[in-house]
């Protein structure tokens, strides 16, 4: 009984499964029929167009096998830690340079900064390759690290770097026969020994020196590829304080006692300083201060408040000019041309102050002597008119030298007494010596004569100094 029930259940389950399979088969058959009908009703032209698009699609070449540069140049087959032709003659390496800019010239640091394109030319047969066309291959800095390149450095350089914006400014170009062009864009700050003895009327010659660090002249021979034409400069290069006169190249051998002889290349350039800036800032102000100090020679000797501040002001101004010039200059142990001019001008200003001190001192001595003689003189009431005329004529020159209101303030009686004192002094001097000495003594104590001679001597001496100075240094 149980067996019959189990058999009946199995039959029922098999019948249900068959019904589902039949239903799915009918649905699949129906879908296939509908798809075949849509394909049959599609226009032939549209199908042809779609087929043409598929036929004309270009293949993706990036998915193909492209040979690497290492495989083309056979970099893995050679040891590039050694120079080309190791064990043979020296490798000739040609060099040419294009100067992009000459940035700064510093007298304080004794250096200059230059940006340039440095190019090397040599032949390495290990990099030769076979190509269908005789065209070169260009690479960037990534391949440079895998092959041999000359180990150049800048002698006496303080700072240098290869530009890396936006990528390293390095270019490597390889030709099928193995010739190599290696170019870098570099900025270098190098030392320049300047002679400032003629500053600011000087001309400076600086040089940038290029040399191999490891390879002597037995292994590497540096030379300028096109002689003096190997150096090119930008026409827009200009400096604020200098005029670039010339660029030229030279080459020499440098000897080091520990390692040997090396080829060294020189980039020489000559600079002449512009003088106009220093004329406006240094020479003209110093000259004007010297000329201003001469004004005191035309001011009355008794005008102390006028002459003393004028002399002190000019001295302090000259000191300020000298300090300002030396603040921007290196502390060299020799005298510069500008120092000579400024210190000579300072001496002229200082002597003008000393000149007034001498005039004032001699005037004081004269007044003391006159005061002593005035006490010994008798009454001057009966003085004849002829004598008065004689004394007036003898002092006419002295009266003419008096400026301002200082001479007018004297009354007639005091003036006659002063003239009598002078006659007494002349008579006293004549009693002790010949007339020639009396006149000489009179000139010596005439303090107005010192100002009169200074008006001619000071400008004349300063003019002679300027003629000699500019003829030597210019």
From TrEMBL:
Report which superkingdom the organism of origin falls in: Eukaryota
Q: How does it sit in the membrane?
A: Multi-pass membrane protein
Query: What keywords would UniProt list here?
Result: Cell membrane, Chloride, Chloride channel, Disulfide bond, Glycoprotein, Ion channel, Ion transport, Membrane, Postsynaptic cell membrane, Signal, Synapse, Transmembrane, Transmembrane helix, Transport
Q: Which residues cross the membrane?
A: 275-298, 310-328, 340-362
Domain Neurotransmitter-gated ion-channel transmembrane, which positions? 282-420
What span is annotated as the signal peptide, if there is one?
1-19
Reaction catalysed by this chain? chloride(in) = chloride(out)
Question: Does Metal-binding show up as a keyword for this record?
Answer: no
Any GO MF annotation of the entry = chloride channel activity
Task: Give its localization.
Answer: Postsynaptic cell membrane
Could you tell me which InterPro entries the record lists for this protein?
Answer: GABAA/Glycine_rcpt, Neur_chan_lig-bd, Neur_chan_lig-bd_sf, Neur_channel, Neuro-gated_channel_TM_sf, Neuro_actylchol_rec, Neurotrans-gated_channel_TM, Neurotransmitter_ion_chnl_CS
One GO CC annotation, please? postsynaptic membrane
Domain Neurotransmitter-gated ion-channel ligand-binding: where? 76-274
Q: Which SUPFAM superfamilies does UniProt cross-reference here?
A: Neurotransmitter-gated ion-channel transmembrane pore, Nicotinic receptor ligand binding domain-like
Q: How does it assemble?
A: Three rho subunits (rho-1/GBRR1, rho-2/GBRR2 and rho-3/GBRR3) coassemble either to form functional homopentamers or heteropentamers. Rho-1/GBRR1 subunits can also associate with alpha-1/GBRA1 subunits to form a functional GABAAR. Interacts with SQSTM1.
- What this protein is called in its record is Gamma-aminobutyric acid receptor subunit rho-1
* Origin species: Tachysurus vachellii
